[in-house]
């Protein structure tokens, strides 16, 4: 089922453990209709966050529909959080519902809300790579990063620039 893409991404991002990924994969196989609904919600959430960030980049007021989608997911996530004591103080954790199929979305919604409220949004950038459009945080000292990843879009842009110079030199 296509929700496996979401589970693999969540596992790679470190929001779910191996054990959680296996349990969620089993649950998605047992409940394919619920899994399909969660996957559609994930796509809607991704698009809403992308639209909100694009609005931030263009210095326009975020679209109400996108904010509603994020807030709806955030309400579901917050409803499954609890404050717990740790050796270092207190922190928010998701309670015993970690084996809910939509638990993967809770981390995304919470992370997006934290970024929008706490991060330096002047460091938000859109990749200048051809056909990319990924958003990223420019953590460079002089805020001059142009690409989401130097290994991908950055290298492609530099190769294109080099080839264009070679063509002009040959003419």
Summarize the structure.
This protein is 60% helix and 11% strand. It has 6 helices and 4 strands; from the N terminus they run H-H-H-H-E-E-H-E-E-H. Strand 3 and strand 4 (135-137) form a beta hairpin.
Question: Would you give an account of this structure?
Answer:
By secondary structure, this protein is mainly α. It folds into two domains: 119 residues, no CATH class; 51 residues, no CATH class. The protein is 60% helix and 11% strand. It is built from six helices and four strands. The strands form two sheets. A two-stranded antiparallel ribbon has the order 1-2. A hairpin with an 8-residue loop joins strand 3 and strand 4. It is globular, with a radius of gyration of 20 Å. The mean pLDDT is 90.
- What summary fits the major beta sheet? 2 strands, antiparallel
Tally of contiguous helical segments: 6
The oligomerization state is single chain
Low-confidence stretches: none
> What is the domain tally?
2
| Helix content bin | 55-70%
Instruction: Determine the strand fraction and express it as a percent band.
Output: 5-15%
Number of strands: 4
Keywords:
2 domains, mainly alpha, 171 residues, two-stranded antiparallel sheet, 6 helices, single chain
SSE order and pairing:
Blueprint lengths: L2 H11 L4 H13 L1 H26 L6 H15 L2 E6 L2 E6 L8 H16 L5 E3 L8 E3 L12 H21 L1
Antiparallel strand pairs: 1-2, 3-4
């Amino acid at each position: 089922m296509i929700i496996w893409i979401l589970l693999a991404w969540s596992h790679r991002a470190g929001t779910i453990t191996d054990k959680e990924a296996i349990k969620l994969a089993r649950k998605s196989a047992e409940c394919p209709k619920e899994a399909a609904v969660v996957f559609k919600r994930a796509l809607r959430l991704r698009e809403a966050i992308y639209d909100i960030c694009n609005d931030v980049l263009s210095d326009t007021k975020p679209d109400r529909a996108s904010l509603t989608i994020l807030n709806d997911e955030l309400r579901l996530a917050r409803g499954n959080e609890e404050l717990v004591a740790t050796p270092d103080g207190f922190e928010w954790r998701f309670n015993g519902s970690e084996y809910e199929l939509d638990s993967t979305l809770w981390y995304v919604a919470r992370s997006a809300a934290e970024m929008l409220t706490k991060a330096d949004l002047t460091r938000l950038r859109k990749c200048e790579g051809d056909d990319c459009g990924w958003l990223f945080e420019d953590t460079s000292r002089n805020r001059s990063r142009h690409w989401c990843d130097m290994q991908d879009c950055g290298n492609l842009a530099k190769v294109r620039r080099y080839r264009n110079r070679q063509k002009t030199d040959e003419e």
